[in-house]
Amino acid sequence: MTDMIDPKTLLKDPGHFLSMGFGSGLAPIASGTFGTLAAIPIYIAARYHSVTALVILTVVSILLGIYLCDRTTRALGVQDHSAIVWDEFAGFFVTMLWVPMTAKTVIAGFFLFRLFDIVKPWPASYFDSKVNGGFGVMMDDVFAGLYASGVLYALSRWVL
Q: Considering only CA atoms, which of 137, 98, 145, 114 is closest in space to residue 20?
């Protein structure tokens, strides 16, 4: 099935630009991975400023993401189109909430989030397959981020 609308045509709109991760979601393969990579500098800037800034960024990313991802899903006519990667941003921010910022935690957080986002253990799988619109798009990644954050927290306490 081909997409009715080319996602590139939506990039001039600020909301679609954000939902497509500043264009990182247009990567021809592994768009979720590229979206997560694009989230890292934003995480570093927020976390460098303060933990409070990261918490605010995470909450705003989730709430705004529900709207943005829903809007882009409707514009593209495809549920959770691969170009939509704002959910990866929010999921990565969730992953990193409870650990100190070090090179090791950022790298481990990246790989753990990608793993849980791909595997989608319940309830992430439920939101991915059963809940349409921006809420479903966002929540599967939020839950993947929660799983990743738990593992990352344990690793940061005893290994990293």
A: 137
Higher pLDDT, residue 101 or 132: 101
- Reading phi first (left if > 0) and then psi (alpha if -120 to 50, else beta), residue 103 is in alpha
Q: What are phi and psi of 2, to 5 degrees?
A: -95, 150
Using the predicted structure, report yes or no on whether residue 2 has a pLDDT greater than 70.
Answer: no
For residue 12, the model assigns a pLDDT of: 86
Q: Which residue has the tokens 């439920």?
A: 126
Mean pLDDT calculated for residue range 53-57: 96
In degrees to the nearest 10, what's the CA dihedral of 145, 146, 150, 151?
Answer: -30
Six-digit token pair at 116?
Answer: 């849980």
d(C-alpha 63, C-alpha 41), whole Å: 20
| Predicted confidence (pLDDT) at residue 82 exceeds the cutoff of 90 | no
* Nearest alpha-carbon partner for 36 in 149, 152, 145: 145
* Beta-sheet strands, E only, within the chain: none
